[in-house]
């Protein structure tokens, strides 16, 4: 199991598609800094020069980094494309391994269950990492340019209201709030990547495997919007800026666990029972 896991992790993290996902996410992360953060940095001195702005809170990391900047195009695109960034690195690898006959050579040297568990772990970890690393890049760059002032309710850039999930934590400990959201994003992204593994058993086209989680992601968003509960869609509740207002953590946890159970359970069950010829 350990040797197979090492091999699968190397395949997942050292490939062009993983690099492509990081580049796409990184471009959005840097673009947001140039477009949104630097202009705020340039205007910081005005808060000291003009007495009439003395009551306004200056720009802070926690108000403007890409994760909470719900008014930026870059943040919108990032959370729209999140499923694609998650699946791009390695989520179609089981489908490809079956088509190329790679699994046959593996099964002659190792247990099928060991390969399936190693594959699931590698896909989950690569999917979560590909999504979270660009966010960390953006957060780090923003911290280099703006002060990490405690957020205030009256701040002009703060969009997190009292109904938002973990709102009290945001105003008490924004660093912990951000860390918990990044963990949530990592886990959910990993499960989205795992969902592509489950889709591998249903279709005969690699691109459909990759697009499956993205289509489901958009469908849930459209359905929740139609039912006037957009905050219950992953596209909304994964955003630390809480663009749709409040959602209970129990709802987020239930959807995350359901996705994980369906994605991982289906792949483990079908993968171990599936006969490879």
- Low-confidence stretches are none
Distance, first to last CA: 22 Å
Work out the helix count: 13
Number of DSSP E strands: 0
The dominant shape is: elongated
What are the secondary-structure elements, in order, as H or E?
HHHHHHHHHHHHH
Bin the strand percentage: under 5%
Mean pLDDT: 90
Biggest sheet: strands, sense, closure?
none
What value does the Rg take, in angstroms? 21 Å
Structural class: mainly alpha
Helix content: 55-70%
Number of structurally distinct domains = 1
Characteristics of this structure?
single chain, 277 residues, mainly alpha, 13 helices
TL;DR of this structure?
The protein is mainly α. It has helices at 2-13, 16-42, 46-49, 61-64, 73-87, 93-100, 102-107, 112-145, 167-172, 174-199, 206-226, 234-237, 249-273.
Could you give the topology of this structure?
Elements: H1 2-13, H2 16-42, H3 46-49, H4 61-64, H5 73-87, H6 93-100, H7 102-107, H8 112-145, H9 167-172, H10 174-199, H11 206-226, H12 234-237, H13 249-273
């Amino acid at each position: 199991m350990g040797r197979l896991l090492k091999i699968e992790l190397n395949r997942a993290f050292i490939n062009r598609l993983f690099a492509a996902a990081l580049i796409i996410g990184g471009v959005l992360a840097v673009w947001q800094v140039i477009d949104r953060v630097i202009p705020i940095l340039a205007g910081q001195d005005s808060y000291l020069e003009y007495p009439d702005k003395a009551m306004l809170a200056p720009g802070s990391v926690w108000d403007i980094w890409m994760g909470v900047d719900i008014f930026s195009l870059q943040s919108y695109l990032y959370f729209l494309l999140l499923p694609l960034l998650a699946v791009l690195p390695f989520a179609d690898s089981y489908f490809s391994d079956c088509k190329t006959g790679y699994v046959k050579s593996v099964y002659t040297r190792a247990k099928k269950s060991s390969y399936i568990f190693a594959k699931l772990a590698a896909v989950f970890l690569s999917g979560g990492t590909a999504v979270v690393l660009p966010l960390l890049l953006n957060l780090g760059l923003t911290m280099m340019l703006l002060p990490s002032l405690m957020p205030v309710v009256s701040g002009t850039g703060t969009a997190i209201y009292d109904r938002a999930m973990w709102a009290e934590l945001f105003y008490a400990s924004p660093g912990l709030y951000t860390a918990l959201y990044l963990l949530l994003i990592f886990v959910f992204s990993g499960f989205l990547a795992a969902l592509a593994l489950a889709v591998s058993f249903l279709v005969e086209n690699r691109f459909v495997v990759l697009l499956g989680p993205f289509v489901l992601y958009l469908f849930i968003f459209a359905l929740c919007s139609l039912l006037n509960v957009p905050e219950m869609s992953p596209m909304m509740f994964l955003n630390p800026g809480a663009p749709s207002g409040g959602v209970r953590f129990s709802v987020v946890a239930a959807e995350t666990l359901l996705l994980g159970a369906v994605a991982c359970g289906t792949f483990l069950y079908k993968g171990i029972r599936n006969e490879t010829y």
